Give the backbone structure.
Amino acid sequence: MSGPQLTESGKEKMIIEAALMCAQEPLKVSDLRKLFIEPVPDKHIMGFLDTLRADWSERGLELVEVAQGWRFQSAPAVRAFLDRLNLEKPPKYSRAVLETLAVIAYRQPVTRGDIEEIRGVAVNTQAIRQLEERGWIDIIGQRNTPGHPSLYATTQTFLNDFGLQTLDALPALPGNHRDSSNRQA
């Protein structure tokens, strides 16, 4: 076995791999540390994760780090094949919904008025509702202006579903240098 080994049995990598494969949600390094009775330094766990990522690099699954931790997911090369197994089609989102999500992701926190100003059209209540139901956006407070409009921002679910560790991993907008200093997720 390659990578760091802490015990005579050398089963740490196998234990971490099994935990990641069986987990319903991404696991943080702190979660993986709880697997062991004896303390395992973060650098060793990161070493095991790096080894596992390399071990799985040429397979149908890949180990990736997302906002909420580490998870296995299907490799891009096999996703089209796996889609054939899903009888249900994934939900289709209208252009308005996707534009609204993009405005929130790149400019958060924003109000409906901000979104309408940027898009140049009224925001459909159903678009906001779809994004909230999907768990991609949430109300994080109210702006301290007349009417106290709700402030929307993306969630950890958004980052995980889009395979992002942070909002800084969003692709740059063409001809635009985004300022991420006030964004959150």
